[in-house]
Amino acid sequence: MKINNNIPALITNRQLLRNENSLAKTMERLSSGLKINHASDDPSGMAISGKMKAQIDGLDRSSRNANDGISVIQTADGALNEVTSMIQRMRELAIQAANGITEQGDKEAIQSEIDSLKTEIDRIATSTEFNTKTLLDGSINTRIYADHISRQQSSQTVASGQYNLTIDTAATRANMASTKNWEEFGPITAAQAGTIEINGAAAQIKEGMTSQEIYEAIRDAAEIGEAIISEYGNAGEHVAVFESTAYGTDAELTITFSNDDLATLFGFPTSFTATGNNAVITLDKTSDFSNQATYRVEGNKVTITDAGGFEISFLAEAGYKGDVNMNVTDVGPMDLQIGANEGQYMTVRIPATDTEHMYIDDVNVTTVNGAKRALDKLSDALDYINKARADLGAYQNRLESSVANLDETSENMTSAMSRISDADMAREMTEYTKYNVLSQSSTSALSQANELPQLALQLLQ
């Protein structure tokens, strides 16, 4: 028996400390609900669960991103639904104007409503926003940068790159120039009095009218007949020049004089018809156009198509001949981050839906053929809007699928992380009970061990 070093007490104390440490760790797991509270608890498990936690947080945020994207698309689609209704109303008005019983005054009243609807369509295109981001003005679409063209549009499958072409011949209007000066046109004699019909719109030329009065009468008729009357020719001569308002082979100019004396006064035949010419272009197949690319031209509107739904359209600058170098960029489309990692995004493109890009900005039912032409343009505009809305619907369906997938992946990954990092409360409670009992037992044993030196002292009595 020894009193200098109480070995049984030291052994018991060591066991007591070990039990207390185990008991503290068990209590920490019970209070936190986590099996891994420190890196020392499970180094590899800590590393794995940390990466899983970052992935889960990213998936949850991506799910909210996708839902925000759905809200953006629903906002745009709601606005386009109203645009659809307005275009349908404009088409209905065009049909009314095309009826033969509709007088010119009626057509002007109809045109007033059409102009108001066009203004509202443009307002919607420029003011529809989500979180201050404008949706329908073309800013969320592929940007095409080029000189001498306007109203650029591209389909979803057009990749960024350099697309070059040459306008060999500019589109022209139908035109006819008089050989007489305006000063020679008045005053009108009785023999010269009559009518001048410009694409079916009549100008009454009465006896005694001066050159200025003649010009005003012809100008008003030309406006209804979809033509332009000018006082000056190409060389600056003070002569009468008639031109169609439209470009291309569909632009027709027919002028008829009611009598030979009136035609002779203007230096024209009694009746004549002129047509314009479409632009002639050449695609540069050494640029990013494929060898399968083709084009069609309507006046100065050019549409280039290729396999796989590729389409680029634009309006060429009037009178321009020369190279057009189109730089198609990936600037503009909206990328929605719908994954937890870099590069996991979805690109959304929404075309411009203003009247210019739909080519209905010049719809005018007050002219001779304006109502019939408006029907074609408005039908094309409806197709344009329907295509844009169909793309939006496809985006929304994809995003809804993404949300479902992200939520399910997050749930499965959370379950996997739980198996690594979460504490098994039943097991930990069992461990707690064990170490609690052992701690009490060790405390009691230490008390007994501390009494052993007292027994040794009894030998000295």
What is the topology?
Layout: H1 7-32, H2 43-98, H3 104-127, E1 129-130, E2 133-134, E3 144-145, E4 149-154, E5 161-169, E6 173-181, E7 194-198, E8 201-205, H4 211-224, E9 227-230, E10 239-247, E11 252-257, H5 260-266, E12 271-275, E13 280-283, E14 294-298, E15 301-306, E16 310-316, E17 322-328, E18 334-337, E19 345-348, H6 370-421, H7 425-450, H8 452-457
Antiparallel strand pairs: 1-2, 3-17, 4-16, 5-13, 5-17, 6-10, 7-8, 7-11, 9-10, 11-12, 14-15, 15-16, 18-19
Mean pLDDT: 89
Strand order of the largest sheet: 3-17-5-13
Radius of gyration: 42 Å
Element order, helices and strands?
HHHEEEEEEEEHEEEHEEEEEEEEHHH
Helix content: 40-55%
Number of strands: 19
Low-confidence segments: none
**What percent strand?**
15-25%
| End-to-end C-alpha gap | 15 Å
Number of helices: 8
Note the main sheet: 4 strands, antiparallel
Instruction: Estimate the global geometry from the Cα principal axes.
Output: rod-shaped
The computed structural class is: alpha+beta
Characteristics of this structure?
single chain, 461 residues, alpha+beta, 4-stranded antiparallel beta sheet, 46% helix, 22% strand
Could you explain how this protein is built, in words?
With 461 residues, the protein is an alpha+beta fold. The protein has eight helices and 19 strands. The strands form six sheets. It has a four-stranded antiparallel β-sheet with strand order 3-17-5-13, with no helix packed on it. Strands 4-16-15-14 form a four-stranded antiparallel β-sheet, with no helix packed on it. A hairpin with a 2-residue loop joins strand 7 and strand 8. Helix 1 packs antiparallel against helix 7, helix 2 runs antiparallel to helix 3 and helix 2 packs antiparallel against helix 6. It starts with 6 loop residues before the first helix and ends with a helix. The mean pLDDT is 89.
